[in-house]
Structures are given as C-alpha cells and as structure tokens.
Amino acid sequence: MLIAKAHKSGVGLYADMVINHNGGGDEEEVNPLDGEKRWTKFNPKSGIFPRDYNHFHPSRYERMIVEARTMRDTRISAIATLRFMRRLYRYARL
C-alpha cells in the first residue's frame, strides 16, 4: 500500500539489500589466524543455519596475511616476495 502511494505521488522506490548479510553475531570467537576476537558465532533461535568461524574464515585477505607473516618469519627471497605482491595485486582487483 505504501509503495502504491509513493508511485501515485511520482516517487520511485528501490530495494537495497545485502544477500547473505549477517547482523551482529551472538558470541565472539578467537580467530586462530591472528588471535583477535571476532563476532562470528551465530545461534539463531530457529536453530536454522547456525554459523561459526569456519563459515567466514579464512578469507582471501586473511590467507594473504598469513602468507606475508610466514614470508617475513622465514626471510625468504626477494623473488618470492615479488611473486606474493603480484598475487596480492591480482586478488585486490577481484
């Protein structure tokens, strides 16, 4: 009814939504990649589609961070670092 009234008044409407978006989590969990707490524990009252860390991580960004730390810690060659930077650039463009 509200949509019809808006259209009758010459006002256009559109839906703005995020598919698979999650509101705030129900509980914090420690991200094992960086040791930081994240709101990634979801326990819906319906019991349908509960989610935790494993549903969100590791993201491409986190994988790159882990690789960068590994490279820094092991002090691998400049060539490997260059390859890593190229991969990071490609992922950033996706």
DSSP summary, beta strand count: 2
What proportion of the residues form beta strands (DSSP E)?
A: 5-15%
Structural class: mainly alpha
* Overall average residue pLDDT: 78
Structural commentary:
There is one protein chain. Helices cover 40% and strands 10% of the residues. The chain has 94 residues and is mainly α. The protein folds into two domains: 34 residues, no CATH class; 37 residues. A hairpin with a 6-residue loop joins strand 1 and strand 2. Helix 2 runs antiparallel to helix 3. The longest helix has 16 residues. The protein is flat. The model has no long low-confidence stretch (mean pLDDT 78).
Provide a brief overview of the structure:
This protein has 94 residues and is mainly alpha-helical.
List the helices and strands and how they pair.
Elements: H1 2-8, E1 27-30, E2 37-41, H2 60-74, H3 78-93
Antiparallel strand pairs: 1-2
Helix pairs in contact: 2-3
